[in-house]
Design brief:
This protein has four domains: about 5-110, Alpha-Beta Complex (Conserved hypothetical protein from pyrococcus furiosus pfu- 392566-001, ParB domain), CATH 3.90.1530.10; about 115-185, no CATH class; about 190-260, no CATH class; about 275-335. About 55% of the residues lie in helices and about 10% in strands. It has helices at about 5-10, 40-50, 70-80, 95-110, 115-130, 135-145, 150-160, 165-175, 180-185, 190-200, 205-225, 225-230, 235-240, 245-260, 265-280, 310-320, 325-335, and strands at about 15-20, 25, 55, 65-70, 85-90, 285-290, 300. The strands form two sheets. The chain has a five-stranded mixed sheet. It has a two-stranded antiparallel sheet with strand order 6-7. β3 and β4 form a beta hairpin. α2 (about 40-50) crosses α3 (about 70-80) and α14 (about 245-260) crosses α15 (about 265-280). The longest helix is centred in the middle third of the chain and has 18 residues, at about 205-225. It is elongated and about 100 Å long.
C-alpha cells in the first residue's frame, strides 16, 4: 500500500466533538507550527470557531488524544476557554505515525505557507524522529516545501533548527533569503548570539545585514578571531551602544568600521583620495568624479554654464586644476599607481 493510499484510508476516521481537556498538548510529535501561537487563528476561532475539524488519534479509554493536525486551532480554543472542539478521530498506531505526519504536512500545506523555521522543524522530524532516508527527504519533501532538492539545502535547514530560540523567532517573522540563512548556519552558536544582538539592536535590513556578515566572516577568517570577539571590541561596542545617533546612522558607522578592518590599506587610500579632493577645491560649480576609485583610468569633470563668459571662467578654472599637485595625486590614486598612503 502506498503512502497516498494509506492516507486516504487514514482520513476515514470518526468525527466527534471532544473536550479540549482531553487533548495532549504536551505531545508535539506532529507539531509543525513555529511559533505555535498565531493571533490570526485565535481571532478567527473567537469569531467563527473551527470550520475544519482538527485531526487526533486515540480513544477516550486510552488517556488523552494525540493531536495530529490543527495544533494552532486547538491551542486557540484552549486559550479562549472554549471547552469543546470538532475533531476527526483516528486509530492510534505507532506504525502509522510516519503516514500521519505526512497527512498533517499536506493538511497544513492546503491552507498556508510554512516559514523557514517551520520547514526546518519538518525536515528535522522527517530525518530524525521518523528516520526517513535522506534521498527520500530530498526527492519528495524538499520540492513539497518549495525548496531545491539537494543535500546542501537540506543541511542548511537541519542546522537552522538548532539555532537559539531568539534567533529562530526572528527568522520565523522575517522572510530572509536562503543565502543569508546559509551564512548564519556557518557560524558558531556563540557568534550567532552576537549577530542576533546586532540584528535586534539596530534592526538591520536584509541587504545590509548580508554585507555586514560577509565583512565579519572575512575578518574572522583572516585574523583568526571569533565574530563575537570582533563585535565585542571597544570600537564596535561604542557604535552599537551610541544612543546619540539613530539606527541607520549607527548601521552606516558600523559598516564603515568593519570595511576599514576588512580593507585597511584600501580604506586609507580612499580616505586620502577624499582629503586630496577636498584640498583641490574646484570652483565655478565644477564637480570631479570617478566611477570606480582605484579601478578607473580617468575622471569626469562636470559643470554648467549659460553664457560664453561662464564657459571661459570654467575653462580657466579647469586649467588651474590641471596644474595642481593635488590633481596629479588623485589621478595616480585612481589608476592604482599608489599602493601606500602618501605623506601629507
Amino acid at each position: 500500500m502506498t503512502l497516498t493510499q494509506s492516507g486516504l484510508r487514514f482520513l476515514s476516521g470518526m468525527f466527534q466533538t471532544i473536550d479540549c481537556a482531553r487533548l495532549d498538548f504536551d505531545d508535539t510529535t506532529f507539531l509543525m507550527s513555529y511559533p505555535l501561537e498565531a493571533p490570526s487563528v485565535t481571532q478567527s476561532a473567537a469569531a467563527i470557531g473551527v470550520v475544519h475539524p482538527i485531526v487526533v488519534a486515540g480513544c477516550p479509554c486510552h488517556g488523552k488524544y494525540q493531536i495530529i493536525a490543527g495544533f494552532r486551532r486547538a491551542h486557540a480554543f484552549r486559550r479562549l476557554g472554549i471547552k469543546m472542539i470538532h475533531a476527526n478521530i483516528q486509530e492510534r498506531q505507532a506504525a502509522l505515525q510516519p503516514m500521519a505526519f505526512d497527512l498533517a504536512l499536506r493538511e497544513n500545506l492546503s491552507h498556508r505557507r510554512f516559514n523557514h523555521v517551520e520547514k526546518a522543524l519538518i525536515l528535522s522530524k522527517l530525518s530524525t524522529r521518523f528516520a526517513w532516508p535522506q534521498e527520500v527527504v530530498i526527492r519528495d519533501y524538499l520540492p513539497l516545501l518549495d525548496l531545491a532538492p539537494n543535500e546542501k539545502v537540506l543541511n542548511v535547514y537541519l542546522k537552522l533548527w538548532n539555532f537559539d530560540e531568539e534567533l529562530k523567532g526572528y527568522i520565523a517573522c522575517h522572510d530572509l533569503p536562503l543565502t543569508l540563512i546559509e551564512l548564519l548556519a556557518g557560524f558558531s552558536s556563540n557568534d550567532r548570539r552576537s549577530i542576533f544582538l546586532l540584528i535586534s539592536e539596530l534592526k538591520v535590513g536584509v541587504n545590509k545585514l548580508k554585507e555586514l556578515l560577509n565583512y565579519l566572516e572575512e575578518i574572522s577568517l583572516r585574523d583568526e578571531r571569533t565574530i563575537s570577539t570582533i563585535l565585542a571590541s571597544q570600537e564596535i561596542r561604542a557604535i552599537l551602544t551610541d544612543q546619540k545617533h539613530r539606527g541607520p546612522q549607527r548601521i552606516d558607522a558600523l559598516r564603515a568600521a568593519l570595511r576599514t578592518q576588512r580593507f585597511p590599506r584600501l580604506s586609507r587610500l580612499e580616505s586620502q583620495y577624499q582629503e586630496t579632493l577636498q584640498r583641490l577645491k574646484p570652483s565655478c560649480g565644477i564637480r570631479l568624479t570617478t566611477d570606480r576609485i582605484f579601478e578607473d583610468d580617468s575622471m569626469n569633470a562636470a559643470f554648467r554654464f549659460s553664457s560664453p563668459e561662464e564657459l571661459k571662467t570654467a575653462a580657466t578654472e579647469l586649467l588651474r586644476l590641471s596644474e595642481t599637485p593635488e590633481l596629479d595625486t588623485i589621478l595616480r590614486l585612481i589608476r592604482g599607481e599608489v599602493t601606500q598612503p602618501l605623506s601629507q
